[in-house]
Amino acid sequence: MPVLSEREPHPRARRGRGRRPAAEVRADVLAAANALLLSEGMGGFTIEGVADGAGVSKTTIYKWWSSKGALALDGYLSAAPCTPAFPDSGDIAADLTAQLGAFVRQVTGTAVGRVLVELVGQAQTDPALCEAFLERYTGPRRRLAAEAVRRAQGRGQLRLDADPEAIVDQLWGACYYRLLLPHGPLTEDFAAALVKDLLRGVRA
Amino acid sequence: MPVLSEREPHPRARRGRGRRPAAEVRADVLAAANALLLSEGMGGFTIEGVADGAGVSKTTIYKWWSSKGALALDGYLSAAPCTPAFPDSGDIAADLTAQLGAFVRQVTGTAVGRVLVELVGQAQTDPALCEAFLERYTGPRRRLAAEAVRRAQGRGQLRLDADPEAIVDQLWGACYYRLLLPHGPLTEDFAAALVKDLLRGVRA
């Protein structure tokens, strides 16, 4: 793909007699990154491809993003829904089942879910992406779930000596595991079984 | 790195007047793949690098391996310990805690563990690697754990309506999740807490 220099702006970069404002360039880059990610996945995602799609130089992209992975995450999040709320019905089992089921619906069988696992994959060899992913994607979502568990502990519904973070790992982590290493189907029934087993225990 | 053609064998390929036997070439390729993986990780792992290390052409490698990931997995497994046995003491809680703790020890803080997560990462954009990884790495290990759970169900120690596969996901999956997305420390204490919470349940 041709790489355009800063001195010869891409036709899309012309706006009257001047350059596009920085915010507009940034938005174009994110939109191009998102589109490339959804059409090609991480396997076909390149800085060159995004530069070409947005009509900017690779140099411009490297000014703002430290790696291909960092750009991919920003492109993904720019069009992703906000962190979903975690409604509190007072019934922690029902709330965990609903939230975990919604996560499963969101990540299975959609391009968005495919991109999510590819970002996690890329993060294994891109420490900056891994850190950004924890901070901006899984972190806020985990916090909401852990807070729901703490509220239920405060109401005496869950054991106080169980670690809320470990509970999140045994629910969401089990789903990520099936998403990344698909030994079995990742379904809403599976999500419901995870909540049931963990809350009541599997000891006979 | 220079790529050697089939018609001009690398000096290491000469053995008397003939070529190395295929089995020997294959072993050299696997040893070179393993060495490159442990020294550079998946980020620096290339077919060229392995070809160079083993003194063979890229063509030879492509005859046997369909992708960089497939070669990396074979290189990794060629030097990996066999699937660990799953001893049966009669106490399922103790056995699960010991096995999960051993897994955590194996994958944390070692080059081998780092390579493992990088293979899982690469598998997200390499379907052949993903399939091979499930079949040859996680599959046999999961089967042993699920069989231990079934034996405990047979002895009346675990609930019969709990799915052994889901139990494996809630223990090993939670550890993989922390390994791949390190929101919290992956320790033997964490592993022990996972077993304890799942067996007794977290409902107050």
What does this structure look like?
- 2 copies of one chain form a homodimer.
- With 204 residues, chain A is mostly helical.
- Chain A folds into 2 domains: 1-82, Tetracycline Repressor, domain 2 (Orthogonal Bundle), CATH 1.10.357; 92-202, Tetracycline Repressor, domain 2.
- The first copy, chain A, has 9 helices and 2 strands, in the order ββααααααααα.
- In chain A, strands 1-2 form a two-stranded antiparallel ribbon.
- In chain A, helix 5 packs antiparallel against helix 9.
- The longest helix of chain A is centred in the last third of the chain and has 28 residues, at 127-154.
- The termini of chain A are far apart.
- At the A-B interface, helix 6, helix 7, helix 8 and helix 9 of A face helix 6, helix 7, helix 8 and helix 9 of B.
Layout: helices, strands, pairs:
The structure is a homodimer of 204-residue chains.
Chain A: E1 14-15, E2 18-19, H1 22-40, H2 47-54, H3 58-64, H4 68-79, H5 92-107, H6 111-123, H7 127-154, H8 164-180, H9 188-200
Antiparallel strand pairs in A: 1-2
